[in-house]
Sequence to fold (228 residues):
Amino acid sequence: MNILVIEDEPDIRKNLEYNLSRENYTVTSVSSLSEAESVLNLNKYSLILLDLMLPDGSGLDLCKKMKSNPETETIPIIILTAKDDEVDKVVGFELGADDYVTKPFSVRELILRIKAILKRGQKKEDVLEVGRQFGDLSIDVESHEVQVNNDQIDLTALEFRLLRQLVDRRGRVQSRDQLLSDVWGYSSEVTTRTVDTHIKRLREKLGPMGKYVQTIRGVGYKFSRSPD
Fold:
């Protein structure tokens, strides 16, 4: 599998090249958006590690461009950033990024995340899926469409999987580790606050139906068993 590393710090770039190559990935690395554009036109990549602060612009711009292009929208993107900024994380997720890691990061944990995301992308649905209805919330699994009060709700692929997981197990509390395993495919060795960020955005997007995504303090989250 081919991985593209877009990172302007030479030490980090070389470290990622070395460790990813040891895991038998084919690695291409560049240090700017312009270089990234060039290699993206030449090769097909299985996953992209994308730094946000690049010398010729923001990685978010490239993320947006790729996720709005049908030819590249399915390529997983993990954001690398030195900025522990909630706004950047939320914007990245809104644009369709699969996860983020904040520098300095553990290369071992990053590789675990990469393996989980690539494995998740290989899963196939064997059973014909049906829709879900919960009060004014409607979920069409086959078309990946969600409506609240007949209004279309624009969810990212991860937000859709998270909502489906919560609704399918409504009434049952799910820990963050359980959600990370079932939705993201991460093992318990991976530590991340991505669940909390996605839950927050999901509630906001669901509007009046967001109240049914409940926080169980000290445990995790659950979707209400039945509408009011």
The CA atoms of residues 93 and 99 lie 7 Å apart. Residues 107-121 form the longest helix (15 residues). DSSP finds eight helices and 14 strands in the chain. The domain at 132-223 is CATH 1.10.10.10 (Arc Repressor Mutant, subunit A).
